[in-house]
From TrEMBL:
GO molecular function: dynein heavy chain binding; dynein light chain binding
Compartment(s) where it occurs, according to its Swiss-Prot or TrEMBL record: Cytoplasm
Biological processes per GO annotation: intraciliary transport
Full protein name: WDR34 protein
Signal sequence annotation: none
One Gene Ontology term, aspect cellular component: ciliary plasm
InterPro entries for the chain: Dynein_IC, WD40/YVTN_repeat-like_dom_sf, WD40_repeat_dom_sf, WD40_rpt
UniProt entry tagged with the keyword Cytoplasm: yes
SMART domains linked to this entry: WD40
Keywords: Cytoplasm, Repeat, WD repeat
Domain of life: Eukaryota
Record-annotated membrane-spanning stretches: none
Length: 541
């Protein structure tokens, strides 16, 4: 058989099979070929480099991008600063020092003259810029009480802040009439800065065999506190001594008051700079000054007596034999301008200007161990009833000498010590006003404690604390706070001279409330002293 072969067709240009064609079976037959093996060079190379053999391709790098650019820039203007402007700004300013010196020499005398004139001027006295937002909010921070005293229906008769302003004390007794000279009472203190303050558990409780009518912390020794008793005695306690806190007392002698002591004050001792003296005020008509003795005794150093002859005749004194009877003194306040001058309030309704330098002897004979002098110099226009409280302004100048007084007629009188008639008479209450205090930081602000009601016989009152700001109104309180629950009066209040935003007030329920005053009552405004002087002068004119 001839073999077949491929031949190129010259016409078509294609290759064609010519010759005999083999059968299909010869072209396609089943067969088994041996397998082929190709050795991997990549695996051997990876093993030599100790690399993973999980894939044959390199690591694919990926990048995530959330923006079309990789830089950003903040711009607040649409133009850039000119380089020329920067260079001009940075160039040193050329100063003609010779001409400047000549100018200063020419105006020197005139400038010094104007500076001296401004230095002596009082046009901007008291001016302060106040950028804070003002508000009239008053918040109750603490409600303090001693349950055992409340169980006896005792009232808070006086409150006082210690020298640091962190401790408040109150005395318990009775002010609504009767004879409680033998009833046990208390003096309680709370440290408001102490952690875990319990408002119904005082830090210190001192039991006293007689009602405590008045209280006063020492002005510089935080642990010393003096109290005046219903029995007429004076006692000084050291609150740092827990066993026996009594360190001085008057005892019952011929010099002791014969009526309740309604106010006590600490005075500097002119003879001993490291000692103090105590002043006491009583409705027996005597104002007594006591000195400390080594045997824990308070001895009488000097004294004054207010008698009927010293004040104008009035219907309130007709029951006395004229010139001989004592006039009951209820309150006292020293002038902040002259420490020898003080104001007293008396049961006859008068406020009296007195002098500690008085030398005239009082006509009232008391059997005292020291002669008692007559201090009264001037009587002011009376209230319609007994005066319960007086308070001298800590801001007045010599030309003003202002003080406040309040009493059972529900009025507050603003007085100048230079004239007998009040500058202002404010009807704050329909019934009694028990206490008035001038703010220690605001010349135009004062506070008053009142009781309202319709029953004088049973002393049925609703207690209020009134905050008055002459800058807001010269006729009505800026804020009136309801303190006592039910119909019970507020008897006493005191500003805190160290933490000036705090005001403590005690009431007939046996409760002391500590109020936080807003900046409106504690930050002095610009020219506030001038406003007070202007107010006084307008009323006087």
């Amino acid at each position: 058989r001839s073999a077949s072969c491929f031949h190129r067709n010259p016409r078509s240009g294609r290759w064609e099979l010519v010759g005999p064609r083999p059968p299909l079976a010869a072209m396609f037959a089943d067969g088994t070929a041996p397998g082929a093996h190709v050795e991997s060079l990549w695996r051997s190379a990876q093993s030599a480099r100790c690399e993973a053999k999980s894939c044959q391709t390199g690591k694919i790098s990926t990048v995530e991008t959330a923006a079309q650019s990789h830089t950003s820039q903040d711009a607040s203007v649409q133009t850039d600063q000119s380089k020329d402007a920067v260079q001009d700004f940075q160039q040193e300013v050329q100063v003609d020092y010779t001409s400047l010196l000549s100018f200063l020499q020419r105006v020197e005398d005139a400038v010094i003259k104007e500076l001296n004139k401004n230095w002596k001027s009082r046009a901007f006295d008291g001016f302060e810029v106040n950028w804070t937002d003002q508000n009239e909010t008053v918040l109750c921070l603490h409600t303090l009480s001693y349950p055992e005293a409340q169980d006896q229906n005792l009232q808070v008769t006086s409150v006082s802040w210690n020298a640091t302003g962190s401790v408040v004390a109150c005395s318990y007794g009775r002010l609504d009439g009767g004879d409680w000279s033998t009833e046990k009472s208390y003096v309680c203190t709370w440290n408001l800065d102490r952690r875990g303050l319990n408002p119904q558990r005082p830090d210190l409780v001192v039991e006293v065999p007689s009602s405590v009518m008045s209280l006063a912390f020492h002005p510089s020794q935080p642990s010393l506190i003096a109290g005046g008793l219903f029995s007429g005695e004076l006692v000084v306690w050291d609150t740092s001594r827990t066993e026996d806190p009594v360190i001085w007392r008057t005892g019952m002698t011929d010099d002791t008051h014969t009526d309740p002591v309604y106010q006590v004050n600490w005075l500097p001792d002119a003879e001993h700079s490291n000692r103090s003296r105590l002043l006491s005020v009583s409705t027996d008509g005597r104002i007594l000054v006591w000195r400390e003795e080594r045997d824990s005794r308070l001895a009488l150093a000097e004294g004054f007596a207010v008698v009927a002859q010293q004040i104008p005749r009035s219907t309130w004194l007709k029951k006395f034999a004229w010139g001989e009877a004592a006039v009951g003194v209820t309150s006292l306040s020293f002038s902040h301008f002259d420490p020898r001058v003080f104001i007293v309030g008396v049961e006859g309704g008068y406020s009296l200007k007195c002098s500690a330098a008085a030398e005239t002897l009082a006509l009232h004979r008391t059997g005292s161990s020291v002669p008692l002098r007559a201090p009264v110099e001037l009587a002011f226009s009376p209230h319609g009833g007994p005066v319960y409280s007086v308070s001298c302004s800590p801001f007045h100048r010599q030309v003003l000498n202002l003080f406040l007084s309040c009493g059972t007629d529900g009025q507050v009188h603003l007085h100048s010590m230079l004239q007998t008639q009040p500058l202002i008479s404010l009807q704050l209450s329909k019934k009694y006003l028990f206490c008035v205090r001038w703010s220690p930081v605001r010349p135009l602000v004062f506070a008053a404690a009142s009781g309202e009601g319709n029953c004088n016989k049973c002393f049925c009152f609703i207690g209020d604390v009134h905050l008055f700001d002459f800058e807001k109104s010269s006729r009505k309180p800026t804020v009136s706070i309801k303190q006592a629950s039910g119909e019970r009066p507020v008897y006493c209040l005191e500003f805190n001279i160290k933490q000036t935003q705090l005001l403590a007030a005690g009431d007939a329920t046996g409760t002391v409330k500590v109020w936080q005053l807003s900046s409106d009552f504690t930050e002095q405004g610009p020219r506030e002293m001038n406003h007070l002087e202007q107010l006084a002068s307008e009323i006087t004119d």
